[in-house]
Specification:
The chain is an alpha/beta fold and about 575 residues long. The chain is about 50% helix and about 15% strand. The strands form three sheets. It has an eight-stranded mixed sheet, with helices on both faces. The longest helix is centred in the last third of the chain and has 29 residues. The chain is elongated.
Length: about 575
């Protein structure tokens, strides 16, 4: 690590810190308000293994000099400072820019003007939009934009408060504002000097840029990292840059405004992937970056407005039990939306048939054979998926079997098999794929196929209902555990659905001849119900889009859920008189 200083055009000394060997791609990181260059320490230390990383204190912050008045904080001067630093640390090659909060605001100003023409290889922006873009975003008046505009306006209240005279300085010097930010955001208490000086950023630039916005654009490769829980910059505002940055990549990250402090590993990986992709390496772009580019392309096409394509285009899903029924229908449904699908099934022929159906419809799918009851096999599936296709965005733990018949007639072997597949199969999938999603740090979604039998007792489905109730509770517990990682978990609870499960259900305590008769009768009853696996798949997609914790499917599943909450005694009474099977599914 080395320290130096760069002199600005108006004679200010800017403190500069450099990490990593020279000769590597240069990353220049620009901090925001009320931080200094040390906000990047965690990210810079990780990037320095493969990059030459430069951080500096912007004027008025950290160890850099402060200008004499408000005019010294003008965006044009801040952009000129950035140019001076870039020229000093990389005079002969373009740099990769990384910026947060007001650092991103000033960097957007620089890359959308003439200040850095020819000097930028890529730009990663976090929680700091171009002020001109902000004004244009807030000026949207169409009904489809109104909710997003109002939500951002509510998030921006503090910008008005910071422009008031005297009061913000009093709040800072008393320690009240710094303490509030430190407690709320779990960050170090900011320097009083930095916080007071930085108020001039708002007072100088907001009136000038918001009042007379320009349609500033850039052809620089841009990556927007949008924290989903940012209390100041909503994802809708952050990604509105799509209208002005056609070479765009977008990643939605779990976390709040100071994600650069709380998830430095994720930030470093995202930057490193963009640097590699824009420096002309031969290796293919990782799935996460390809997915980010597809999101950006969809946002550019929609002029910065989110739509269904932004979620599903170029995504990756893993579906177990995808050789038939709900699993096959789900694979086909998400593939039709533009998502690649790993089709996993215990039958190689069934998996291959699903892949053929997907590809015939213009989708992309890959067959994998797996017995979900085998932990090692599921671990291998997760590892192969990550290595060959990338970390998935959606995992559907759908594989399952049926066992019907009274408790007393159900053998230990039948109990072990249904628990191994229906419960342990879901556990294995959640463990191994959940670990991948968590390590990736970009969120995702897990769907576990439970059943209406999870909350509707039945005297003829004790084994099956027990496993599905366990899956439902597992899903609810896992949803709580993975929430901070931005990973949604949904328990899908179908009712009576016409699928091939009836042809393979084991009826405990019956002869082979009686098995066939009961399977035929069950299949006929389910067919008369007429609810298809395709309808379930459509509901599954909707549940993922809405991040629902519980998704009952079919009228009887909804009615059963309501009764389980309002009249559980009625369900128990009905269970005692139940003459036959009542549900399902895969």
């Amino acid at each position: 690590m080395s320290h130096s200083a760069v002199t600005s055009a108006d004679g200010l000394r800017l403190a500069v810190e450099e990490r990593g060997a020279r000769g590597r791609p240069v990353v220049v990181a620009v901090h925001g308000y009320p931080d200094d260059r040390h906000v990047w320490d965690g990210v810079a230390d990780l990037l320095a293994d493969d990059h030459h990383v430069v951080t500096y204190d912007v004027r008025g912050h950290g160890d850099s000099d402060a200008p004499g008045g408000r005019a010294g904080y003008d965006l044009d001067l801040l952009a000129a400072d950035l140019r001076a630093v870039c020229d000093a640390v990389s005079p002969d090659a373009p740099v990769h820019l990384l910026a947060h909060d007001w650092g991103a605001i000033q960097t957007w100003h620089a890359v959308t003007g003439d200040t850095l023409t020819g000097r930028v290889a890529s730009f990663t922006s976090i929680s700091g939009p171009c002020l001109d873009h902000v004004a244009l975003f807030l000026g949207r008046r169409s009904p489809r934009d109104l909710r997003a505009v109002l939500r951002q306006a509510a998030h921006s209240w503090y910008t008005l408060a910071f422009r008031l005279p005297v009061l913000p300085e009093l709040a800072i010097r008393s320690g009240a504002l710094g303490g509030l930010v430190a407690r709320r955001e779990r960050v170090p208490r900011p320097s009083v000097r930095d916080a007071v000086n930085g108020l001039e950023l708002y007072r100088r630039n907001l009136p000038r840029r918001l009042g007379r916005p320009e349609r500033r654009r850039t052809d620089v490769p841009v990556q927007v990292l949008a924290p989903r829980s940012d209390a100041y910059v909503t994802p809708a505002l952050a990604t509105s840059a799509a209208e002005f940055a056609p070479d765009l990549r977008v990643r939605y990250l779990p976390g709040g405004h100071w994600v650069v402090r709380h998830r430095p590993g994720v930030i470093a990986r995202c930057v490193s992937e963009l640097v590699s992709a824009t420096t002309g390496g031969d290796s293919p772009a990782p799935h996460a970056l390809t997915r980010a580019r597809a999101r950006g392309t969809a946002l550019v096409a929609s002029r910065g407005r989110r739509n269904r394509g932004v979620r599903w285009d170029s995504g990756l899903a893993v579906v177990t039990g995808a050789g038939s029924g709900i699993g096959r229908a789900t694979a086909r449904r998400v593939a039709a939306l533009g998502t690649r699908v790993v089709v996993a099934d215990v039958s190689s022929d069934a998996a291959a048939e699903t892949v053929e159906l997907v590809e015939r419809a213009g989708g992309r799918a890959f067959a994998h054979v797996v017995d979900v009851a085998d932990d090692a096999a599921v671990a291998e599936l997760a590892a192969r998926t990550a290595a060959e296709h990338g970390v998935p965005d959606l995992v559907v733990n759908n594989a399952g079997i049926g066992v019907a018949g009274p408790f007393a007639a159900t053998t230990p072997q039948e109990w072990r098999r249904i628990v191994d597949v229906n419960l342990w199969g879901v556990v294995h999938g959640c463990r191994h794929f959940g670990a991948l999603l968590t390590a990736q740090g970009e969120g995702g979604h897990i769907v576990n196929t439970a059943s209406a039998a999870a909350y509707v007792p039945s005297r003829v489905l004790p084994a099956y209902a027990t496993t599905k109730a366990a899956v439902l509770m597992l899903s609810q517990c896992l949803r709580a555990e993975l929430a901070d990682a931005g990973i949604g978990v949904t328990a899908l609870c179908p009712g009576i659905v016409d699928t091939p499960i009836t042809a393979h259900t084991r009826f405990a305590g019956t002869s082979d001849a009686e098995q066939d008769a009961r399977r035929g009768a069950a299949a006929a009853a389910y067919a008369r119900r007429g609810y298809t696996a395709e309808q379930v798949a459509a509901r599954l997609v909707r549940a993922v889009e809405r991040d629902l914790p519980l998704a009952p499917v079919t009228a009887e599943a909804h009615a059963g859920l309501l009764a389980s909450r309002l009249a559980p005694g009625l369900l128990r009474a009905l269970a005692r008189t139940d003459p036959g099977t009542s549900e399902e599914h895969r």
